[in-house]
Amino acid sequence: MPAIINEFKLFFSSIKLTIVLLIVIAVASVIGTLIPQQDAAHEFLHGRAAWVVYVFNVLQLGNIFRSVWFTFLLGLLSLNLVVCSWNRLPAAWKLFTRKCSPGRGNIFHAAGFEWSHTSPARLPEETKRIEALMKKSYRRVSATQTADGTIICGDKGAISYLGAYIIHAGVLVIILGALVGIFFGFKGFANIMEGDSVQAAQLLSGKGVKQLGFAVRCDKFTVEFYETGQPKMFRSDLTFSKGNQVLKKGALMVNHPIEIEGIRFYQSSYGSIADKAQIRVLKNDRDLAHASLTENGQLELPDKAGHIKLLRLETNLMELGPAVKLQAKIGDQIKELWVFQDIEEIKRANPGILQKAPAFDPDITSPYRLVLEKLDEKYYTGIQVNYDPGAPLVGIGALLMIYGLIVAFFYPHRQFFVRLQGENNATVITLVGKTNKDQGILKREMIKLMAAIKT
What we know:
The protein is 36% helix and 38% strand. It is α+β, with helices and mostly antiparallel strands.
C-alpha cells in the first residue's frame, strides 16, 4: 500500500504532468474559441455528414467548456497542484517561519558587501537604538550575544518562499469558480415587448426556461439610426419588481449592463413584430370602410353586409413583402385570402401569379376590394441574462495569482545583520546582508539602513 501511495504522489507531483495538462487545456480552449458553441453549433452542423455530427456530439465539441472531459482535465490539474503543494509546502513553510539568526558560520566573513561605522556612543545605548530602529522596518528582529559581539538580525520578504503556493491557491480558486459557474450558473435570453414584462429567461441551447424570481418590465424602448439605416443607439428602460415592490429601475444599453440579485442583464439585440394592420375596404373603387385591426380583430361592413376578420400578419410573406390573411364574410359566402401591401408591384414582377394563386387576388371578394395600407410594427428588446455565482471566486483567484507572482518574482527575502562591538567607550558597527535573489534590491536597502544607523 505505501508503494502505491508513493507512486500516486510521484505521478501527480510531476511538473511534466502540469505542463502536459496546461497544454491540453490550452489547446481545448483554442478549439472551443474557433468552433461555434451551444446554439451556434446547431447551425454549424447543419448539412454536415452524419459521421461528423456523431463525432461532434460524442466529443461534446459544441459545448467544450461544460463537457465531461474538459471538467475532468480541470479536476486533474487541481489534483496535480494540490499534491505538488502538499509535498513541497512544508520545506517552504520552514523557510518562511525560520527565525532570523546569524547561523553557525561567520556571516561577516562570507558576505560580499559590508559596511562599517564607529559610533561615539557606548555599546548598551547603541544596541537599544539600533534594535528599535530595525523593529520599525523588519520582522522577527532578534539580538544574539556572540564571541565577536552583539549581532542584531532582522529580515523581510520571507513570504517569497510561499509565492508559488499562493499562485497554486489562486489557480485552484479560479478552477473552483469556473466549475461553480458551470454547474450552478446559467445563460439565457428574453425578448420583451415595450410595455410587457417577463419573469423567466429562455436558456441557451433550448434547455428550457429559468425562473428569475422577479419580474422585468420594459417601460420604454428607444432606437436611433444613422442616415445609412444602421442602428446608432438602442436602450431599454427597465423596471425590476417582486410583487408590488420595485427592486430597481435603470436604463439598459450596450456595454452598460444592470445587475440585480446576482443576475446580470445585457442589452443584446432588438427587433420588431407586426402589431396592427391598416385595412381599407373599397366598393366599386370607392372607400367603404377603414379600420386598424389586431389579430382576430373584425371590421364590420356597412348595412350589415358582412365583416372582415384579420387572421394573421406577416412582415415578409414568401419574400413578397408585408401581407395579412383575411377572412371575408359577405352575405352567405366566406372566403379567405392573402392581401399584400405591394400587390401591384408583385403582379408586375410575377406575371400570372394571381391565376396560379387565386388566394392572392384582392378582387375575389368583388364587388368589394380589400387593401392593406400598412402594418404597424412594435419593437421588442432582446436581453441576455447571465448568472455566474462563481465569478467572485474567479476574481479572488485572480487577485491571489497576481499577489503570488509579485511576492515570488519581485519581493526577495532579505536578511540584515548588524554587529556591535564596544571599543574605548565607542561602538564599532558592522552591517552585512544576504538575499535569496536580486542583489541589487539588497544593496539599495542596505544603503538606506546604513544612513539610518549613521544618523
